[in-house]
């Protein structure tokens, strides 16, 4: 496996700092009408990141694209000079909302994507606050998913399972963490998760069997 020069050095930290500077020097991009909307603010921040991220990467990027559908695995993607391919999922966390659990990706999508050692699925989180119409960014995380500690992640019951941030206020980074160890932990978590879901499904099935009997006894 070829190690990413971007993430197995301190270079990603410079991208984080430069992203903060970029966003904080932007002219006010919210209005009195849009400022209360977390979605409007998040969409605007994401658009700025996608428009300028190639500049932030500098010579770490040889090819760049931000042309993805809304429900795609990534918001932007790039290839480096070593031919490594990065899909970046941009997330935002508004401090005033106190708590949220953003979805990162489907466990099945990630498993298939990581069959190729040259692929990196990258998490980019922008933490910001809004005062009036002014957005202030105080932190950016820009790391591959395997640098996220499992103690700040959880699995949501959607499809095969969705990897989620358990609480966007608490994000624990383990720089340089082994992808192999992280993926083995994912497998162990899923092998514990699915039996619990089977029990839940059994209870739901029993409920609807009783409900059907109830309705079968009803007169027309």
Could you walk me through the main structural features you see in this protein, from its secondary elements to its overall organization?
- The protein has 220 residues and is of the alpha+beta class.
- The protein has one domain (11-216): ECO RV Endonuclease, Chain A, CATH 3.40.600.
- It contains 4 helices and 8 strands; from the N terminus they run ααββββαββββα.
- The protein has helices at residues 11-24, 38-57, 107-113, 179-216; strands at residues 63-65, 76-79, 85-94, 103-106, 119-131, 134-144, 153-156, 162-165.
- It has a 5-stranded mixed β-sheet. Strands 4-8-7 form a 3-stranded antiparallel β-sheet.
- The longest helix has 38 residues, at 179-216.
- The mean pLDDT is 93.
